[in-house]
Specification:
The complex is a heterodimer of chains A (151) and B (270). Chain A is of the alpha+beta class and 151 residues long. Chain A has helices spanning 4-7, 19-26, 108-117, 119-144; strands at 29-34, 39-41, 49-55, 57-64, 67-75, 79-80, 94-97, 101-107. Chain B is globular and about 50 Å long. The relative contact order of chain B is 0.14. Classes of the chains: A alpha+beta (151), B alpha/beta (270). At the A-B interface, β4, β5 and α4 of A face β10, β11 and α4 of B.
Amino acid sequence: MRTIAEELPDHPFFAGLGSDALALVAGCAVNVHARPGEYLFREGESADSFFVIHEGRVALEMRRPTGAAVLDTAEQGEVLGWSWLVSPYRWTFDGRAVEHVRAVRFDGGCLREKCAADPELGYALLQRIVRVMSSRLHSARVRLLDLYGAS
Amino acid sequence: MVPRSFAVTRTRQDTRDTATLWLEAVDGAPLAFQPGQFTMLHAYGVGEVPVSISGDPADGGVLQHTIRDVGSVSHALATAESGARLGVRGPFGVGWEVGTARGHDVVIVAGGIGLAPLRPAVLEICADRAAYGEITLLYGARTPAERLFTDELSRWAAERGVAVHVTVDRGDESWRGQVGLVTGLVDRAVFRPALTTVLVCGPEVMMRHTAAAFLDRGVAPSDIRVSMERNMKCGIGLCGHCQLRELFICQDGPVLGYGLVASLLTQAEL
């Protein structure tokens, strides 16, 4: 069985990150599993986690009186969560496993401390997080156009 | 230019606003077509609209059309019942030319009702599956309930070795699949960029973003084919209603190489 530090370089999010940096962030990480239907986090809770998904799919949901709306999904090869990086560090959605999820959970506070102590690492991580944010913002903007709706 | 009379032999309600019709020529003469071509469908007393053919080109001349109810003519067509008579002109235009992709990996990308014009291409590929490399279908729909041909998607994956990936713009609690843009599925496709043909049909914004994703992966613009939708009227390049600068979409298209239309897709009122 491979350690977290050995497994991280295979994940697209960490592509190009040096072994020293990987060893640093691996110190903030633990392996987690979630069964289908299990919540990884809930809206309004303190956001102290960042997930790197190795297997499975997580739905980002918002609860409504009529039921939950799934706004996005994150799955194998993707990452989940940037609220740990932005004050006040609070989840704005629910994260529910829709399939069995195998992931690495990073402690947000630990990552912030290491990024503050090592700006080069902080910049490298921030570049990767911003790329994810940009992609999700683009997805949300285009979907606002409701392209498949009535023309 | 005179419509031939066809009888509706079967109907199926696919989604809340979309139905598929099976049509057979009243005079018995089958209508041969190429995947990606369209006909002008005439609801007598109401009007005529262009509709892509969604049926199997090897289906012995039975014509299949999948129609979304968005206006008066399409409403009359989508709600036609078995036994009704409709007028048909065509088939018109240049299709997907699927055979030219033999030996290539093929990635088929559909958005919404755009899966209907691509279905004949998928069926033609599946009928000659060994002649092609990896086949991937990426399909984006508005909601889970608005997906088309759901039974067939599973069959193509299970029986024909087609890698099918589906995403929706908005999910609900019961949806276990992916939520997000269809362009987000491109990274899931396995293909050799220099030996890949990409077929795309959907809203123009979606096609533009999809093409950009494949260009980023190293696919040549000439290997990306898009199906354009314009206001086709005559179907034979005379009236000019569907003109896109020097192109008559009804005759030069509707399927065109992305390299030919890329610069035209962002020009307003062209």
